[in-house]
Amino acid sequence: MSRRAPMSPALLEAFTAEMAAARAPGPAAERWRAAERAHILSQPWPWPHTRTHGAMLRLALRDRDMCEALGQLVRLAVAAPGSAAGKYPDGNTGRTRAGLTTPMPIPDDLAALLCEAGIALRR
User: Quick one: angle between helices 9-23 and 108-116, nearest 10?
Assistant: First the structure.
């Protein structure tokens, strides 16, 4: 298990803003988009990654989406170990429909934050 430096201030600020947007009232699609962006930012760090899946589980339950909720329970179990071991698919949105090990394109603004924080992206 490798130790990773804490989130950079800019990345932490972006992660915190996305998590707040995921919890804010409003259309479900906007909350999910924010949670997915928070997930991409959080993957290298065990605790933030796990927190993101907790937020996604709450969204799934709020939406009464039991398939998504079940998928989030699985992801809650593997998020921290996967992050700690550096075994996570870059850009994965964290949703059940994305698949556990499927890498996905990273939005440019998030890729820049991750690169500035010293995270090597496997593009």
Answer: 140
d(CA 57, CA 31): 12
Q: Write down the pLDDT at residue 1.
A: 41
Burial of 116 (0-12, 13-18, 19+ CB in 10 A): exposed
Query: Rounded to a whole number, what is the largest CA-CA distance in the chain?
Result: 39
Cβ count near 62 (within 10 Å)? 11
For the segment 4-32, the average pLDDT, to the nearest whole number, is 95
pLDDT interval class at 51 (50, 70, 90): very high
Which residue in this structure is represented by tokens 């959080």? 42
Given a cut of 80, is residue 6 above it in pLDDT? Answer: yes
Alpha carbon of 92 to those of 4, 9, 62, 122: distances in Å?
19, 22, 22, 12
Using DSSP, state whether 114 is helix, strand or coil.
helix
